[in-house]
Amino acid sequence: MALSYLQTTNIMTHRTIITGLVAALTATVSYAQTPLHSNAHIGLAYPLSTNGVHAPEYSNLFSIHAIAGVSRSEQAFCASGVASIVKDSVNGFIGSGVVNAIGGTTNGCQAAGFVNVAGGYVKGAQLAGFTNIAPGVAGAQVGGFANIALHSVNGAQVAGFVSTAHTAHAQVSGFVNVARETQTQVAGFVNIAENVKGPQIAGFVNIAENVKGTQVAGFINIARKVQGVQLAGFINIADSSDCPIGLINIVGNGEQAIGLTLNETGTMIAAFRSGGRKLYGIIGVGGNYTGGFAAYAFQAGMGMHIPVSRTFRINAEASVTSLSDRWYHTDIRSGFRVMPALRFGNLELFAGPSFSYTASSDLQGVGRVGYSVWSDDSYYYSHDLSVGFEGGIQYHFNTKKVLNKIISEK
Length: 410
Known about the structure:
The protein has 410 residues and is mostly beta strands. It has 2 domains: 4-208, no CATH class; 256-397, Porin, CATH 2.40.160. Helices cover 8% and strands 66% of the residues. It is built from 3 helices and 32 strands. The protein has helices spanning 4-8, 10-25, 400-409; strands at 36-45, 48-49, 58-71, 73-80, 83-86, 90-96, 99-102, 106-112, 115-118, 122-128, 131-134, 137-143, 146-149, 152-159, 162-173, 176-187, 190-196, 199-202, 205-211, 214-217, 220-232, 235-245, 248-251, 255-263, 268-275, 279-288, 295-307, 312-324, 330-344, 347-360, 371-377, 382-397. Strand 27 (295-307) and strand 28 (312-324) form a beta hairpin.
C-alpha cells in the first residue's frame, strides 16, 4: 500500500530533517549553564551586538538586529532582517526576513520570509513564505510551500503545496496532504491518510485506510472501509462503502454487472453498473440504427436498488444519454425509469416504464422519442416529454480478488 509510506518512512524522514536543520542553524557558540538576562538586545549581526560574544548565553525581553541575532532564549519580542537563531525557547513573537531557528519550544508566533525551524513543540503559529518545520504544533502552520510536523498538529496546516503530519485536525494544501490520522483534508490534487474522521476533499484523488465521513474527489477515491459517502467524478474504490456515488464504483461488498438494455426508440446500450448494495453508477455505450439513420450513444447515470425479496427487487435509475450521428445532429435524453428485476444466480432480468425529456437538434433524423405527452419545436431544436419503456439483462461478477489487489498495493 502507498500508506506504508506513512508507517515506515515518514517519521524517520521528518525526524532526520528537523534534527539536522536545528543542529545546523543553531550551531553557534555554546552557552553557559547559568543563563544571563537582558532587557534589550540590539545589534547588527553576531557578535556585533550589545550582548557581544556572550549573546548565546542571554535570555532577552526585547531583541532587534539589522542582519542576524543569536540568543539563548527570547521572552517577548525578537526581530531580525535576515535570521534569528535561538538556542533554547521563545515566548512571544519572533520574526525574520529569511529564517527563524529555535532549538527548543515556542509559545507564540514564528514569522519568517522563507523558513521556520523549531526543535521543540510550537504552541501558537508558524508563518513562513516557504516552509515550516516542527516536531508538533498546537495552533497553526501556514507555509507558502510546505508544512512538516513530526508528531501531532492540534490545529491546522495550510500550505501552497504540501502539508504532512503524524496527526492533524485539518490540512489544507494546494497539491498534497499526508497524515496518519486527520479530521479534515482539503487538497488541490491528492490527500493521503490512514484514518480520516471527517471530510477528504481533493481535486484529483483521495487515498485512505478508514474513513468515517466523506471522500470527495474530482477523479478517484480509494479506501478500505468507508462509513459515509464516497463522491467521485469518475471512480470509487473501497472494500466496503456505505454510499458510493460515481460513474464506476468498485466496492468489495457491493455489486458489479455488465449488461444490455433496449428502450422503446430502439436504442441499445451496453452498460457497466457498479456500486454498493443500494447506490450504483451507470456508464455505457451503444447506438440506434432504426428508421434508416445511424446514431451512436453514450450513457451515464446513477441508480438505486430497492430490495423486495431475495430474488426480486426494483431498480430506480436516472441517466443522461447522448445520441449523435457524429456530424451535425444530437439528441440529449434525460430520463428516469423504474424497473422491477428478477435475479437468477448471476443473471438479472429487468424491465419497466420510463419518463424522459429529449432535446434534439434534428426534427426528422436523429431525434427519437417514445409516446410524447408534450412537445415544442423551435428553429434549432425540438423538445419532448415522453413516456416509454426500457428493459434488459445483465450478468453480475465478483471483483473481490481484483479489489483486494488494488487496495493492498495502493
